[in-house]
Amino acid sequence: MPASAASVRCGRRPARPRFHAEASLFGFPRVMLVFCAGATCATTSQCDCEAARVFGRERPGGRKRVQLLVAYGVRADGTRQLLAFTRSTGESQAAWEGLLHDLYRRGLEGRQLELIVTDGCAGLAAALQTVYPRVAHQRCWVHKLRNLLSAARRRDHAAMKADAQAIYQVASRSEAVAQAQAFARRWQDAYPQLVARLLRDLPELLAFI
To answer: What is the pTM of this model?
Structure first.
């Protein structure tokens, strides 16, 4: 079952409280949700995932690997808070809807959400359209960069990474589109499918602008 952020502070899974208002959840009027799609973590003290550390404390010394669906809230000052997580056997739409509906029932109705950030998980994208259809959906640039470089030759990594970062390190959407077009012109001949995927995903990659 999904667990609240309070479980991280105390090391156990308490009863899930209902949040009185979204502002009380984050402490700021404008917030962002970040989802780790199907994060797979070992239940050991070395794991970087807060949710997995909770499972690790429940099972001292355990080394069983579990798949977690995780939701973080990010405040206006950049700090983040673990909101919910659940064990899952996959990343289907139904699995993600279970986590999203849990957040909604606890009071996170989306009125003050500015942005939801995810990777390219199709199940999560579909679930968001069901539970939070009016909130802007931002594709994660970290995941996109990782995918771009995994499809490119190693000798092209540095140049391609710099060109891709130039797309989002701008002040306006028009500048971002211009940088994306420059990226496409440079890499189209060598990596046509890679460029096509980037241009296909560009609207969601630029949702934050």
So the answer is: 0.67
CA distance 78 to 31: 9
pLDDT in tens, 20-50: 333 334 343 344 567 654 444 333 333 344 4
Within 10 Å of residue 207's Cβ, how many Cβ atoms?
A: 16
CATH 2.40.160 is held by the domain 3-139: no
Strand partners, 74: 32, 80
Listed by start position, the domains of the chain span 3-139, 141-205
pLDDT category at 149 given cuts 50, 70, 90 is very high
Backbone angles phi, psi at 42, to 5 degrees: -85, 140
d(CA 53, CA 29): 29
Residue 154, classified by CB atoms within 10 Å of its CB into exposed (0-12), middle (13-18) or buried (19+), is exposed
Which residue is listed with tokens 């990010």?
74
In this predicted model, what pLDDT tens digit does every residue of 82-106 receive, in sequence order? 888 888 877 888 888 988 998 888 8
pLDDT of residue 186: 97
